[in-house]
Amino acid sequence: MSRPNPAKVAYASGRRSPLAALSTWVERHVQSLVSSLGKLVRQPFASALTIGVIGLGLALPACLHLVVVNASAVTAGIEKTVQLSVYLKQPMTAEQARKVRQGIDARDDVLDAQLVTPAEGLKEFEEMSGFGEALKALDDNPLPYAITIRPAPLFDSPEAIESLSDELETLPEVEIVQVDTEWVRRLDAILGALEQVVLLAAGLLGLGVVVIVGNTIRLDINGRREEIEVIKLVGGSNAFVRRPFLYSGTWYGLGGGLLAWILVSAAVGFLAGPIEKVASLYASSFRLQGLDPDGILALVAGGALLGWVGSWVTATYHLRRIEPRA
Amino acid sequence: MSRPNPAKVAYASGRRSPLAALSTWVERHVQSLVSSLGKLVRQPFASALTIGVIGLGLALPACLHLVVVNASAVTAGIEKTVQLSVYLKQPMTAEQARKVRQGIDARDDVLDAQLVTPAEGLKEFEEMSGFGEALKALDDNPLPYAITIRPAPLFDSPEAIESLSDELETLPEVEIVQVDTEWVRRLDAILGALEQVVLLAAGLLGLGVVVIVGNTIRLDINGRREEIEVIKLVGGSNAFVRRPFLYSGTWYGLGGGLLAWILVSAAVGFLAGPIEKVASLYASSFRLQGLDPDGILALVAGGALLGWVGSWVTATYHLRRIEPRA
Amino acid sequence: MITFQRVFKRYPNGREALAEVSFDLASGEMAFLTGHSGAGKSTVLKLIALLERPTRGQVIVNNRNTASVGSGAIPAFRRQVGMVFQDHKLLADRPIYDNVALPLVIAGVTRRELDKRVRAALDQVGLLGKETSFPLELSAGEQQRVGIARAVISKPPVLIADEPTGNLDPDLALEVMNLFKRLNDVGVTVMVATHDVHLIDRFGVRRIHIEHGQLAGFPPDVAA
Amino acid sequence: MITFQRVFKRYPNGREALAEVSFDLASGEMAFLTGHSGAGKSTVLKLIALLERPTRGQVIVNNRNTASVGSGAIPAFRRQVGMVFQDHKLLADRPIYDNVALPLVIAGVTRRELDKRVRAALDQVGLLGKETSFPLELSAGEQQRVGIARAVISKPPVLIADEPTGNLDPDLALEVMNLFKRLNDVGVTVMVATHDVHLIDRFGVRRIHIEHGQLAGFPPDVAA
Ligand SMILES: Nc1ncnc2c1ncn2[C@@H]1O[C@H](COP(=O)(O)OP(=O)(O)OP(=O)(O)O)[C@@H](O)[C@H]1O
Ligand SMILES: Nc1ncnc2c1ncn2[C@@H]1O[C@H](COP(=O)(O)OP(=O)(O)OP(=O)(O)O)[C@@H](O)[C@H]1O
Ligand SMILES: [Mg+2]
Ligand SMILES: [Mg+2]
Prior knowledge:
Mean pLDDT of chain C: 88
Helix content of chain A: 55-70%
Number of helices of chain C: 7
Structural class of chain A: alpha+beta
Number of helices of chain A: 11
Strand order of the largest sheet of chain C: 6-7-8-3-9-10
Largest interface: A-B, 76 and 75 residues
Radius of gyration of chain C: 17 Å
Order of helices and strands of chain C: EEEHEEHEHHHEHEHEE
CATH topology of the largest domain in chain C: Rossmann fold
Oligomer: heterotetramer
Number of strands of chain A: 4
Distance between the termini of chain A: 28 Å
Number of domains of chain A: 2
Bound molecules: adenosine-5'-triphosphate, magnesium ion
Strand content of chain A: 5-15%
Number of domains of chain C: 2
Shape of chain C: globular
Low-confidence stretches of chain A: 1-14, 128-134
Low-confidence stretches of chain C: none
Strand content of chain C: 15-25%
Radius of gyration of chain A: 34 Å
Strand order of the largest sheet of chain A: 2-3-1-4
Distance between the termini of chain C: 36 Å
Structural class of chain C: alpha/beta
Number of strands of chain C: 10
Order of helices and strands of chain A: HHHEHEHHEHEHHHH
Largest sheet of chain C: 6 strands, mixed
């Protein structure tokens, strides 16, 4: 402190150039990366447990998502827009019927309205019912004029359709109004609810992955408390201590994402057979849809990201609290 | 070792009566029970993490199960048995038609067959189509005789029905055979597949809970390695060291089960409103079904059991490997 | 009470810690175990407490050949051997009271008796009043004494100590040795590994000296 | 280099470890810190290494008042202070090499230089050849020397040691003290807490004696 000691000056030597510092920095990170992976590999059972849990956590929303995607695909083959059939009173001239159609067509809540003449109606009925030849025998067409209506896009909620139907029924020319494709809507409602479940599940399970990784890292930190204390004791900073945990967390997440991909693929493979067999009975060319490349990427990269986030949050929080006790 | 030392004999005193031993045993367990709970409470954040993960893991199959239960309830309201409609050729006398019905009714794969006369058919058609009055105007009933068939219980698989339909179509009196309620079957197929998913998910997640608890206990053991070594050093047996971990694991599982119950109830509460609103539009009196008491019990007790299993397996395995290093 | 018969110990890494050690310590006897650093003192004590097993030869403690003690019987065996460690081996997250009580809790002693004995043991090492402190709140010497209290509380017939006075000031070291001597006087077989030549001189007890893994004659004292 | 100005230290549990301690150790000076068990020796060293902070008074180390070192700056500060601990504080699951290299790894020294310096440090404490052993495979004295090698490898200007010879046999203790003296000779400020009155007598260095948390005159030696 007072007189400069020549021996001492030599002793406390060693400034480093910026380039050397950078190369050391890179070297450190690569080393952490490899050694953290090595640590996971050296504890295969323990790592498998953690990765297994994360994989399950990620696989579940992915599977649910596929359920919805495929169910939507099934119903997509079916005409989905609701349709109203308005049967006009008899007797009615073609002129009158056209006027009624125009009136309905002009409504804001109607996308288009199409007139179905009794002749057209009969033909359609023949095709639909399979009575075929039987009806050809009719002397006279007993069917009334009908108007099929597609509601405007913004007015296809069940409520809007109900009020549209009610209003149309009050028209003097209208005999009866029918709302079609009820079951498709019912199925859609179920799928809609399911989609909500998927969103909820995905949110919860994403959080779950962060929590799982966080928990693992926390317990890992606890298990290496002594080591951390020693490192801090000899001057290791929080960032230095945290680095290996961040790498572990990211590896866990990445591994979990890959596992989830495998699990989902396995589940799809497992279910594809039976489901497609059922579908084929109904002559449907339905094929069970798996994950697309975007989905795979989202799963794997998302897993790694969630792992990193989980370890970052936990390590930052917990490492601050570990102070060396000597 | 050689001459008995009177001081020493007094020193190494203390046999205990069996009753005292029992009361000590009970005391110990009660103490472990309370102290392990106390430990969880003293680390609220850490315990919450673990219980949260387990709760999610248990809530998911429970939710999926409810999806299937409710979807089944929706479709249960609809006539589920497949029905075949056989339209007979024209012209045909009532006598001939009755004979054909008898022939079909006698088949092994037919539960019953019902004759629908043209008059009945017309009435039904009126009701169904909503054409109402319009058809009353018909001079002549154009409809053929029809026979509606319910297949026998053992023959209602899609394959059996297809072959039944094929065979009936070869009869000389038959014009055409129609298989009804196709969409219900399609929905059922989806539900069936979903049920498989639920089973798969429940299995995986039950395993997942064991794994999560096991992993937590493993890391907990790691974190308390020093403590365990010290206890073994002064003569604690594996069973003694393991006891608190078993209690912790069971508490984790129990807590997770309770949390899962809360999560499921919350999800049901969250979705009940929208779903029942949709249902009410279709005048369906559908009510979203939550967990029944059996389900709740299964969830909570199952959670505790899985927690115990997870901790037992892990603790037994890992504690053996921790030997004091001195 | 403690008999070593031609004991050879090689550690898994190939290091040979004991070459061929034989000695016999009678019941109620006391001995100092000396030797340079790395001579094998701690190894001898580890063999007695079954923390290690001999590679060859017999170790007989308390009339039992340690070779006949299976891994399931080790805990019960260890309860017969009180140990004091160089680095104390206390539970950092439990108060002194719990640390000292541990052997009795393991043995399943009732609450009432436990309380009485813990207080008596703490009194013996001069730490009554520190029951609720945690180990890290004590100085090194105080921790060492907690370790001694824990070793003697279950009244084991054999007591072994590995450099129990290394962290103590000379007064305290003397006091601790006197405590061991008192225990020995009531019949406990005591073996203490130590470097403290001055203490050894003061106590007229038997001395077992190891050099390079073998029993040897005593070296000249290095003291001032 | 190390200045204590009217330092008072009360631990969170209410225990007053230091009453009012003032002393000044110049750069390149060496001192023994003595006192009975529980006197406050370790507390003084903990204050120097910023493992604890004074309740009142100033601790100035290496021209920095420790009060001005924020928690983010503590790691860098500690790298200037080499520490040897009573209980070694080694990483049990890493070989000796990694243990000794740790301060250099933290400082970000390149692989090549690191290797050279680790070998040099191990050589200095007579443990060359044990690089791949694990701490628990070494005897207590060998572990102590690993701790010393780690403390000096980053060439800190200040070195503090808490009873570094408690576990060593007299020969080795002397050797270790000589090592500290040599480091002191090349300009390192050294402070060693010890009970070993014989060593103190042998080395003619300054002695700071604490009694009941206060500086005091030296007591008569207890030695034989
Ligand atoms: N677990 C182990 N694995 C491998 N080698 C070991 C192990 N324990 C001790 N050794 C080696 O055996 C030798 C004897 O060690 P031991 O601990 O018995 O010495 P000691 O006499 O107690 O020394 P000290 O006085 O330093 O404590 C040492 O050279 C040490 O390196
Ligand atoms: N972390 C702590 N919390 C509370 N009290 C403590 C703490 N550390 C030490 N003490 C108390 O402060 C006093 C001084 O302790 P210190 O460790 O400084 O003594 P010492 O001189 O190093 O003793 P020894 O020679 O036994 O190591 C002791 O009475 C001890 O009980
Ligand atoms: Mg030793
Ligand atoms: Mg101290």
